[in-house]
Design goal:
six-stranded parallel sheet, 45% helix, globular
């Protein structure tokens, strides 16, 4: 009972926008249980409703390449995985996805890929400009990895509005256990600071339950989020992929992922927080539960059906066979079933909404 009381006290403290220490975050994470989770989620929903009502924003995800120069130990499209059927979408293919998405009510397009050198800066700039030309009332979000300040600036100047770059873990030692030696947590974080300086709406995030992760690691993630103040935070459970060194590692749990969503909502009250496909993969009601824990974004897939099963960051990914229209109708019904409403607009962060 004492631990539950202390958890409630810390949740109340967080709700009042007070800073928690690393030890306090660790205490909450270590002592998570159904009672504290329910208490946290009720607070998280109230805070979300204060800024965004019961609105849920949809983003159209276009996974345009599964080539990647990196060899991250957890990722299904890592460079050394010879079992991946690689593909690239042309600019015409991407614009076709946007055209279909626009007719379905999407006003944000998320262009995601591995770190693929085939798409030069000129190619990326051309794609951004064409999307903004054809769909001027839409936002363009990029999720294409680590770049230089100058590259990020060129994309922004071409019309890109948002950038997603998960930091994956804020702890340097933990980061090194998940990534090859040529990648560093320091550079990842510097990329995020660069994106903020340029003027993007910036998104970051991390895996929950990744190999070797401790509650202390997650506490460091929360402190980094508080420092960075990103506009978007995407988290999801770690799910192993059969063709990676972590193939036999246990996956993260839905319960812990939901708890972290609630903590993020209280730590960053105005953040845009997706309820991810990974949550829906480990539980049929995972995305609904994510919204009820404090999230307010969902990201249906607009990629061509022919390539969806080829973009497998983890095993058993859902929605690889649904038509885009079916996926949107299904998502709207799912959100309505829990008292929320899918909104047709860009869904900007409140600080950018005007």
């Amino acid at each position: 009972m004492i631990k539950i009381y202390n958890s409630f006290f810390l949740i109340d403290k967080l709700e009042k926008n007070s800073r928690l220490t690393a030890d306090e975050y660790s205490f909450l994470i270590k002592n998570q249980n159904p009672n504290t989770s329910d208490y946290l989620f009720s607070k998280a929903r109230k805070i979300r409703e204060r800024y965004y009502n019961n609105d849920v924003y949809i983003r159209g995800l276009i996974e345009f390449s599964n080539y990647c120069k990196n060899d991250c130990l957890y990722c299904g499209i890592r460079r050394s995985n010879s079992n991946v059927q690689r593909y690239r979408l042309s600019e015409k293919d991407i614009l076709s996805c946007c055209d279909e998405g626009y007719r379905l009510g999407f006003r944000t397009f998320v262009l995601q890929s591995g770190e693929d050198g085939y798409y030069t800066d000129d190619k990326i700039v051309s794609i951004i400009k064409e999307i903004k030309k054809c769909f001027p009332d839409c936002a363009v979000t990029l999720s294409i990895g680590e770049k230089t300040f100058e590259q990020y600036k060129a994309y922004f100047d071409s019309g890109a509005d948002r950038y997603l770059l998960r930091h994956e873990t804020a702890d340097n030692e933990h980061y090194n256990r998940l990534h090859p030696q040529d990648l560093s947590a320091e550079n990842r974080k510097q990329c995020l600071w660069n994106l903020k300086e340029i003027g993007y709406q910036v998104g970051t995030g991390f895996m929950v339950g990744s190999p070797f992760q401790t509650p202390e690691n997650l506490a460091q993630d929360m402190l980094f989020l508080k420092e960075l103040q990103p506009h978007m935070v995407g988290i999801g459970p770690f799910i192993s992929h059969k063709d990676t060194p972590f193939a036999h590692m246990p996956s993260g749990t839905m319960e812990q992922t939901l708890f972290m969503i609630g903590l993020i909502r209280l730590t960053l009250p105005t953040a845009l927080i997706p309820s991810t496909t990974a949550l829906g993969t480990i539980n049929p009601m995972g995305r609904e539960k994510g919204i009820l824990a404090g999230a307010n974004v969902v990201m249906p897939n607009l990629s061509p059906l022919a390539v969806r099963k080829k973009y497998m960051l983890y095993d058993n990914k859902i929605c690889t066979g649904d038509e885009s229209a079916q996926c949107v109708v299904c998502m709207k019904k799912r959100m309505e079933s829990i008292g929320c409403k899918v909104i047709v607009n860009k869904g900007d962060h409140v600080s950018f909404a005007k």
